[in-house]
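Archive entry. Fields below.
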Amino acid sequence: MNTQQTAEGAARPAGRPRSEKAERSIIEATLDLLGEGIGVSELSIESIASRAGVGKTTIYRRWSNKEDLVVDALATLKPPIPLPQGGTVRDDLVTYLRVIQEETRHLRTRCIMNIAMSDSERHPRLAERFRELAVEPRRAVVAAVLRRGMDTGELRADLDVDMALALLSGAMVWLTKWSDGHSPADLPERIVDEALKGFRPRPAE
Amino acid sequence: MNTQQTAEGAARPAGRPRSEKAERSIIEATLDLLGEGIGVSELSIESIASRAGVGKTTIYRRWSNKEDLVVDALATLKPPIPLPQGGTVRDDLVTYLRVIQEETRHLRTRCIMNIAMSDSERHPRLAERFRELAVEPRRAVVAAVLRRGMDTGELRADLDVDMALALLSGAMVWLTKWSDGHSPADLPERIVDEALKGFRPRPAE
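PREDICTED_STRUCTURE:
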């Protein structure tokens, strides 16, 4: 048995609940530091440990490296979107864009996502894992909504699903990018209604 | 007369051409530092001067503060888009998206724009001036193309110009965001053709 006492072991007050609470503190500390503008390169396990009030070993017990921790922290900002209620395709698409709108309302989230995008150029593995963990599951849900609409005839049978997704999501991000978090409440409806003009079946010419 | 010798005066080799060349070095040094991941907050006139090989006073003679210099540097990455050739609306829109595509091909440009977006949350005046200087002129050119199409009947007379712009530009940015600069060559055409399905006049139902 290893009898070496870790700094953490020494610092932890007796009886403090461990894993879950510590994990949440570590995630929050990571997001806080990113939100303050500290890039992934400058971010250190040491500074996260100190901010979270835990020892470095507590972090390393759960995450073997900084990038994995950052990905898990970022993913908490992009939880799975609510499963569509099976109403009209229009309703489900509006719900999807409203989730994006709500997320961009918070300055901290915008700062963190911007810095993550910025750093993903230098940390391709981070970008890759974030895509797998947070972007792709959402894409799959919205793609399924679009495919349902193609099946029921609400949408053109020859719709390009990936392109439709890019038009919707891209317009939402574009219109909120410079809005300082104050995009109009009906923006999701307006984008969906404009996009649907091209997504619906065309009457015979 | 002030006889105090500035560091710059001492350092400048005799006969070196001043204003224009120095200005270019200062802009390049600013972009280099941003491209290396140094945020606007950490960026100092001192570090720019040292990288550009000029004295601080040379910078202050032209820019009274750091934010103005950053805005001018960023604007060089988003020059005015080529005036539309007056072909079809489709051709002009493809040209516009191709400009965005070319710009995102360069890692340095992507890094710099990401860090600028990230910092604009903390430097709202920077975001505001960048919008005025680089974003708005482009928006006006593409809006004019869309309005021309509405006049000639190529596009629906009731098209929402701002929304159309957001769908086109947003989709382009969305589809290149995770592409590491390697978006397919025909992406501008594919986006424009998909978007035009909704922008063209609908046959009578």
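CURATOR_NOTE: Chain B has a mean pLDDT of 84.
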